[in-house]
Structures are given as structure tokens and as C-alpha cells.
Amino acid sequence: MTLFVMTTQLDSASDAITINKLKPTFGAEVSGINLQQPLGDSEVRLIKSLLEDFKVIFFPQANLDSGQQKNFALAFGILTAAHPVVPPVNPEQPEVLQVGGADLHRNDIWHSDVTFVTRPPAAGILRAVSVPAVGGDTNWADLEAAYDSLSKPVQELAEKLQASHSGAKEFAGVLKKYG
């Protein structure tokens, strides 16, 4: 169900860009931007704004290969290695990590991507290559909305807490396997 539809026209775009809001607090589907080609400055600004506003944005018609995915990501800043523990499938593209498959590490529980590193990436760019007919969904959570829904005393308590975030338990098997 579409909760909100906005169309806009960029100066350099010949087609209208459509943004469909997906959830009350986050998530939007964007169409009308060709991610296979280099983005113009106005498209980069729009995508940054949409990411800030909606937190998670989807481009269902993107159909990118890993090189195009990397080029798209470069429009937004310096790339980091995809994962500090799990090796990339292609060493020439350390920024691209394959998730899933028979011999690859899987994380099928709630998680945040590589937030245990000293300087975590600002965002992740996922590309669906093979999607099963049933299951295989990636779910998203709005932690800002979750925090905002807490009572003031619980928010104040949370602000005083500290946590140590480590990937040691999750990646012990991978570290043993790959060294």
C-alpha cells in the first residue's frame, strides 16, 4: 500500500521522479532515476535528501551489476571495505560483499552492518541478485522512532548507558576458517 506519493522533476531529468513512502516513519521507493549511468549533482542531492528523510530507500528498477553498484556508491563519498572479517568474493572489489550462498557467512538475525568497526560506514547499498520465491526478505527497523516512543525516564536512562559492540562472537567461525 502506498501511503504517500510525491513526484518531482530535476533540471537535467527528462522523466519525472516518483517517490512512494512505504511506512509511517521510514522507507520509500524511488523510480525515475537511472542508477546505471553517472548521477548528476541534483540527483545526488535528491538521493541524499531522500535518505535523510526516509532512512531506507529502494530503487526497484535499478538492475545494477557490482561495478555499477560501486560507481553509484562513489557518488556519495569514499568507500570502505565491505567487511573487515568476511573476505570479498572478488579481491579486486573489496567494497562489494556477497551475502548468502552455500559457503558464505549468513546473518539471519537482526543486526547492524559492521557497526563494530572504529569508523562504520554512513550507509550500505544492497543489491538483490537472486531472490527466492518465498522468504529471503530483508527487514528494516526505525530505531529513531523506537527511541522517540520510549518514555522520558527510559530515554534518560538509555542516554546514560554505554555498550561495547564487538563482532567477536558472531564472526568466531569465520575468523577460524579464513584466518
Structure, described:
By secondary structure, the protein is α+β, with helices and mostly antiparallel strands. The chain has one domain: Clavaminate synthase-like (Double-stranded beta-helix, 4-Layer Sandwich), CATH 3.60.130.10. The chain has helices at 41-54, 66-74, 143-148, 152-160, 168-178, and strands at residues 4-8, 17-21, 28-31, 57-58. It has a 4-stranded mixed β-sheet.
Task: Briefly summarize what is shown.
The protein has 179 residues and is an alpha+beta fold.
> Residue share in helices?
25-40%
Name the overall outline: globular
Overall mean pLDDT: 82
CATH-level-2 architecture: 4-Layer Sandwich
Rounded Rg: 18 Å
Please give the number of β-strands. Answer: 4
Query: What about the largest sheet?
Result: 4 strands, mixed
- The percent range for strand residues is 5-15%
Please identify which CATH superfamily we are dealing with: Clavaminate synthase-like
The helix count comes to 5
Kindly list the characteristics that best describe this protein.
5 helices, 179 residues, 27% helix, Double-stranded beta-helix, 4 strands, globular, four-stranded mixed beta sheet, alpha+beta, disordered N terminus
Blueprint (SSEs and pairs):
Elements (H helix, E strand, L loop, with lengths): L3 E5 L8 E5 L6 E4 L9 H14 L2 E2 L7 H9 L68 H6 L3 H9 L7 H11 L1
Parallel strand pairs: 3-4
Antiparallel strand pairs: 1-2, 2-3
